[in-house]
Amino acid sequence: MLTDYKKAYLILADGTVFEGKSFGAEGSVIGEIVFTTAMVGYQETLTDPSYCGQIVTQTFPLIGNYGINDEDYESGGSVVSGYIVREWCEEPSNFRFRHTTVNDFLKQYGIIGLYDIDTRRLTRIIRESGVMNGMITNIPDFDKERCLADIRAYSVGSVVPKVSVKTPEEYKTDGAKYKVALIDYGYKHNIRRELLKRGCDVTVFPYNVTADEIRAFKPDGIMLSNGPGDPADNTASIATLRELIPDKIPTFGICLGHQLLALANGASTVKMKYGHRGGNQPVTDLELDRTFITSQNHGYAVVADSIPESAGKLSHVNANDKTCEGVRYTNAPAFTVQFHPEACGGPHDTAYLFDEFIELMQKEGGER
Amino acid sequence: MPLREDIKKVLVIGSGPIVIGQAAEFDYAGAQACRALKQEGLEVVLVNSNPATIMTDKHMADHIYIEPLTLDCVKRIIKIEKPDSILSTLGGQTGLTLSMQLAEEGFLAENGVKLLGANPETIHKAEDRQAFKDTMEAIGEPVIPSKVVETLEDAMDFADNVIGYPVIVRPAFTLGGTGGGIANDSDELHEIATNGLRLSPIHQILVEKCISGWKEIEFEVIRDAKGNVITVCSMENFDPVGVHTGDSIVVAPAVTLADKEYQMLRTAALNIIQALKVEGGCNCQFALNPDSFEYAVIEVNPRVSRSSALASKATGYPIAKVATRIAIGYSLDEIVNQVTGKTYACFEPALDYIVVKFPKWPFDKFVYAKKTLGTQMKATGEIMAIGTSFEAAMMKAVRSIELGLDTMSKPEFAKLTDAEVGQKLSDIDTDRSFCVFEALKRGIDVNTIHDITKIDKWFISKLKNLADLEAWLADGALTQEKYDTAKKYCYLDKSIEKIACQTLEEAGIKRRKAVYKMVDTCAAEFAAETPYFYSTYDDENEAEEFIKEHDTGRKKVIVFGSGPIRIGQGIEFDYCSVHCVWALKEMGYETVICNNNPETVSTDFDTGDRLYFDPLTFEDVDSLIATEKPDGVVVQFGGQTAIKLTKHLQDIGANILGTSAESIDAAEDRELFDELLEKCGIPRPKGHTVFTTEEALASANQLGYPVLLRPSYVLGGQNMIIAHCDSDVSEYMEIITSHKLENPVLIDKYLMGTEVEVDAICDGTDFLIPGIMEHIERAGVHSGDSISVYPAQTLTERVKRVIVAYTERLAKALNVIGLVNIQYVVYNNEVYVIEVNPRSSRTVPYISKVTGVQMVDIATKIMMGHSLKEQGLPTGLFPVGNYVAVKVPVFSFEKLHDVDTQLGPEMKSTGECLGIAHSFEAALFKGLIAAGFKMYDKGGVLFSVRNEDKPEIIEIASRFEQLGFDIYATSGTASTLIRNMIATNFTYRVSENQEPNIMTLLESGVINYVISTSETGRSPARDSVKMRRKAVERSIACLTSVDTAEALVKCIEMKKSIDDVEMVDITKI
Q1: pLDDT tens, position by position, A232-271
Q2: What is the DSSP letter of B20?
Q3: Which of B178, B327, B487, B989 has its CA 20 to 30 A from that of B728?
Q4: 3-class DSSP state of A28
Q5: By the 8 A CB rule, do A217 and A200 touch?
């Protein structure tokens, strides 16, 4: 690696150019640049569908230390637009590592990577200016002005359809007590695993499932998944959820699912300056008066004041910036959180919310 | 939850003298605790026997007792001060054990004192081996198959018949794993278990299945009373399980764990702290099978620890401060994170760098000691290095540790054959990381090294990157690309030149200076308020930006710290550095600290206005100066580490505040110093400079034995001996020449007189001596190992006047601006100078505390241009106060196998404690008690002394006899004693191999004190050394100087108990 590399560049919408080295796939890609502060769990990050349309920067400088294994995928592959690290590890060491390095992984999924740049400087730019579009390219004589025009014109757009399943998928567990409809806006597989582990049969429905289809399925509970993009773009999905409110089906929402249910109830969402991405965000559960460390990945938030009193109330807040991290609904047996209780990567401290969902289904409908 | 209403006055127990396993980290934790309590408006009472600490400084608490950390003393202080609470978790094992004993005895309840931080139940569950195992099993956390035993038979039975070998022995309730070890067969177990059972205060050991080869991972966890829990930091040991974490290279965060393993262990750590109901900080150590998800909990410490100090510095998260606030009622979500000012203590730090901790071992001093590493800690200190890659952090670490290295290449390994290197890989010792590097350079592959060492391949591969880089640098012409790559890995310019065999100028390289990045707890997610920096070779300089944005217009001073704690350069220099910073701040200067020791108060991010956590080498300092552009720099408080920078700093045009580089040189360069003494008309023992054994022998015979031998430029008496005969000289010169010391050897006539030490403050015109200290041991015992008494007790007025006059002459002739430490020997009523150190010294903290003369503050003001007169201070010798203070050294011999305990010119003590009282006798008594001496009123005393000491030992033996002690002695000593009508039991020497043998006698338990002096020592094969080591193993006080023995017998004769002596609040002196 000392002498054998190709140069690559990062061009930011504000005109800043970083010179680094190319890894993964080669070529040029434009995306929204975000950073995650998680120190472990890069494989989960790379396979998290919520990053669709984004170029992910790791603030921890040493990535790929334990390689890529077959088990820690959070989706079928990777949909990140690009990947930026300070250093990737050529010689990973871990008992589950076989032969795939991060470099191999990026090549396999055609993801353009950039390494050996000052990722802290990049993070500070994003922190100060807010999320920004950018381009990774390994074309040395790029036309900066043309690139900038393209970069500025870019928008993540409506990406949920890209990452959602196309047709329902069924997952059974032995001796299941509940039947859960998991609406897939780009779900992380550990949501499914957590439900299966707790005795739920899970059917994954596409994002555009209709209210009638859900009703016909007669689920004990609905699980609204995480997913990428601006929540407000998903007008049809929001309408479906609004339609389902009167059905009073126990519902648990995570991340985008949390935002969509809030929008369906008349609340609003806002784009954050640079979002929360990492495994160290403190969230206070207002009912328990306890603060938990959570895994997060979101660039939009529900405006806490916008939740109609008739619909529900704020249940969780971010202990740092006091943004809305959860809503408990009063008009339906539903609760949602902005963070990721399914973890992967990140701390498992809020896994108890899955237990609450089970309890809710138990209370509302009883075991089957 | 806010501050508890029922807490108004809190007793904080410190950790006592610095010993291996319990060092400066507790001064850092204790100082943070005291400050946090005072910020809450609480009244703070402090007890700590260690006078060299910041925490015993008048700023830190309302009432300060530098008293022995014994149950009786603490009880008396509680009776006097009547605190309503006691904080148990900030004073290391010592503080915790004392608190627990007080609670269990019911004393706290009787006196209405609440125990804060941890309750006895928590401590019991964490520290009692069986209770711990039961607790872990109850919450489903796996532990290593093990059994708690109280007899040797049970230990052998469990190992032989249940778990098989190898096994690890861990004694209950001992510091740093004292008395533990790995046994590979039943013979070894017999020895280790016997020793462990004895050393454990409750005679209990754990015999455990050895899981060597597993990864060792630590988590620092914090919990509040609400049940909020967070992990501050994960750490991974370079060495697999089996090497004490204090002796292992450690990185933070853990690097070879995938999210699955990481979260598994993190969750386990949270479960453990919840189960133990700790309110504050807790350290959890795990062993992780490298081939599966199998893990085991190794150890839990429900208190702040060395690891928590490291974690605090590694992340910027002040664990001790937060733990203290939790102890007095706050919850994590109420405590603001001072680094960001925006976030709360209830979050987990995110790092965007990697930290490497490297231990500092004392084996450069103890040439005969075993360098092998095991479960018993041996390091005296450590350094920390921060980098954006492991390689960079490692390169910084290796030059911070002050082994004379600037890369991972150890010169002595270059001489080995490939086969020898391969062989040496299997030695688990202090050189292992260097050996791995040597092996990689020889082309031994990563897998082979891993198979032998079980060190994770990740670490080996990273070291291989360094080896590859060096090979690339050495291959052909140096290019800018090669240079830039090497700089990214934080190689020094001079190392690059050396490896490439070209100068940068020849190669036309554009030199780079380091820039600085911030440690901010959050990986840049939030803008940080508190400035804590480390160097990298990127383009953006955050420190420069920060300095611009926060420009105060005030003048700026950099204070250089003292690096890792080692024998001869300890916590006292941190005390001095911190005091200097405080004084500068008070005067309105902007202060910058540069240091690399994670255990200290100086590297707390809010001690100075800015902190740079970096190595203290010329080039590192150059970059810092370029970024900070200071108005002045201070080197005289950072021990030899900072002093060594003086000339270089002057060469690059930095403004050195205080004593100049020339003066420092004049004191250290033998010839210049001789000229100076001659000019001042001050005598010193005659001596010469020699280079070879022949010259040394000729010189020694000319001077007449005994003579003192030492290399020039020494610290802490390193490699210094007293030679009594030709063979001593030859042996010494052989060792010295084998170490390839480039400087000549100094040989002096040795005068066995009274040693006197003076610390003076000088402004160039006037001078002030706060006090004259006299050593109990005659010259020849290193000043750091002597019992030191202030004020001097036996000196005549004339001698005192001469000392004051010489001090004035020397201080002025050297043009000292600030502090100077001078050592004299008084021989036949004549005063000779032995040594002058134009810098702060080991005795400054204690003299400042007992005289009330704040030496560092005054010296700092002098350096900034305020004369003694301007400060309204008297000159000359400061009037003697009402108290006598006796400083007693403390050793860590039980941790260092094969180190001869005989005191000599080479310093061996790791710490010290102080006794203060109105009379000398009472102060001495307290000092000895604080240092761990037990005052028996009867029993046995064993004498074995060299010929010169025989006349003097008669009186001491007779006094012991009169007190009712049985006297034992080896042949020569016995006949002397018997001739003088002292009833003496004769015993054979070790090698005489006959009963009654001295070893049997020591084993038998009838001996309470050993008084042993010998002509020569050092080599572990010698009889006298074996005997003294046996005494250490049996925890029998062993005195190696007639003078120390005299002091001890004097104390025993007083027939006092600690209840008879006053407890002194030093804030009232």
Answers
A1: 999 999 999 999 999 999 999 999 999 999 999 999 999 9
A2: T
A3: B989
A4: strand
A5: no
Q: What is the mean pLDDT of residues B440-448?
A: 97
In B374-413, the residues whose Cβ lies within 8 Å of chain A are 388-390
Q: What is the CATH number of domain B686-749?
A: 3.30.1490.20
Cβ distance A188 to A230 under 8 Å?
A: no
Report the C-alpha gap between A163 and A166 in whole angstroms.
9
Q: Say whether A294 sits in a helix, a strand or coil.
A: strand
Q: What are the start and end residues of each CATH 3.30.470.20 domain in chain B?
A: 213-349, 668-681+751-881
Cα separation, A122 vs A84, in Å, equals: 10
- Give the CA count within 13 Å in the CB-facing half-sphere of B1042: 19
Tokens found for residue B1031: 């005494």
Domain ranges of chain A: 7-153, 160-365
CB A332 within 8 A of CB A248: yes
User: Residue B624 belongs to what H/E stretch?
Assistant: helix B618-628
Chain A nearest-CA distance from B214, in A, is 12
* CATH number belonging to domain A160-365: 3.40.50.880
Contacts of B485 in chain A (CB under 8 A): 2
Catalytic residue chosen out of the listed positions A52, A147, A200, A255:
A255
Question: Considering the domain B145-209 in this protein, what is its CATH number?
Answer: 3.30.1490.20
Residues 90-129, chain A, touching B (beta carbon < 8 A): 90-96, 118-121, 123-124, 127
Global ipTM: 0.98
C-alpha to C-alpha distance for B781 and B905, rounded to whole angstroms: 5
Query: pLDDT class for B339, splitting at 50, 70, 90?
Result: confident
Q: What is the number of residues in chain B?
A: 1069
Q: Which residues pair with B773 in a beta bridge?
A: B757
The two tokens of residue B98 are 């004392």
DSSP string, B919-931: SHHHHHHHHHHHT
Tell me: cis bond preceding B905? Omega within 30 of 0 counts. Answer: no
A224 touches A258 (CB < 8 A): yes
What CATH superfamily classification does B668-681+751-881 receive?
A: ATP-grasp fold, B domain (3.30.470.20)
Distance CA(A126)–CA(A46), nearest Å, equals 20
What is the rounded distance in angstroms from the CA atom of residue B393 to the CA atom of residue B614?
10
**Separation in Å, CA A293 to CA B231, B344, B596, B788, B1061:** 9, 12, 31, 53, 52
Q: What is the CATH number of domain B933-1059?
A: 3.40.50.1380
Question: In this predicted model, what pLDDT tens digit does every residue of B347-364 receive, in sequence order?
Answer: 999 999 999 999 999 988
Alpha-carbon distance B35 to B26, whole Å? 14
Q: Could you tell me which of B58, B62, B54 has the C-alpha nearest to residue B81? A: B62
In CATH terms, B357-507 corresponds, of 1.10.1030.10, 3.30.300.20, 3.40.50.11600, 1.20.140.150, to 1.10.1030.10
What is the C-alpha separation between B196 and B156, in angstroms, rounded?
Answer: 13
Tokens of B14: 């410190």
Distance CA(B706)–CA(B132), nearest Å, equals: 56
pTM of this structure: 0.95
CA distance A368 to chain B (A): 31
Q: How far is CA A235 from the centre of its chain?
A: 19
